[in-house]
Amino acid sequence: MTAALPLLVTRADPGGAATVARARAMGLDARHLPLFAARALGWTVPDPDDFDALLVTSAQAMRLAGPGLARLSALPVHAVGAPSAAAATAAGLHVAVTGDSDGQMLIDAMPSRGARRVLWLCGRDHSPLVAGATVLTPLPCYAVDPVDPPSEWAALIERPAVLLAYSGRAAERIAALTEGGRDHLALVAISESVAARAGRGWRAVSLAARPDDAAMLAEAHALCHKGAHRVV
């Protein structure tokens, strides 16, 4: 019979566990292999009167910011994607704008929406954004740190499989752990820039149509079945 390739999910929890659950609901053989773990950082809540809006580019910020987040509840949230918006709503914040692309496009549109002074609750190792006409204040409230690969990692990457890269850091970590032996592996990247940081030599590289979990898994589903191999 023919078996679809396994899908290796390396993102930090709780996002990683959620992705595995969605993938399995699609019938994929998803394996949970987190290569990172998220943790809260201490941060000082600034005066909300100094800002017009709150930028949220990751649901992790909303989950890990802690009780100080309540003091920013008067600021309208501009969220990147539905997961970030849902996390902000769950934290008791008001989501004014939900983007469908990336943080840069949200920043570019903010002045036209009357948001010129923007607070960005972000991760410690965030990618920079070009502020333009916006005064952007990044404030790290969480960190995502590498952890040792799970014990099954070495055996699983020896055979054909599909991996997901949700960020540049993830792409670089996956690349380092597959160096010299990835010509039988396929990669789904959330953007072209993330794919570039994963290096060369992959059996296949596919880009998500949108920067969200649904689009990533749609590409993964196609690759897992396109690369299906016959087993006895």
Features of the shown structure:
single chain; 232 residues; alpha/beta; six-stranded mixed sheet; five-stranded parallel sheet; 13 strands
How would you characterize this protein structure?
There is one protein chain. The chain is an alpha/beta fold and 232 residues long. The protein has helices spanning 15-25, 59-64, 81-90, 103-109, 153-156, 168-177, 192-196, 213-226, and strands spanning 2-3, 7-9, 30-32, 36-40, 53-56, 77-80, 95-99, 117-123, 135-146, 161-165, 185-189, 204-207, 229-230. Strands 4-9-8-5-6-7 form a six-stranded mixed β-sheet, sandwiched between helices. Strands 3-2-10-11-12 form a five-stranded parallel β-sheet, with helices on both faces. The chain is elongated.
Provide a compact summary of the structure:
The chain is α/β, with parallel strands linked by helices. It has helices at 15-25, 59-64, 81-90, 103-109, 153-156, 168-177, 192-196, 213-226, and strands at residues 2-3, 7-9, 30-32, 36-40, 53-56, 77-80, 95-99, 117-123, 135-146, 161-165, 185-189, 204-207, 229-230.
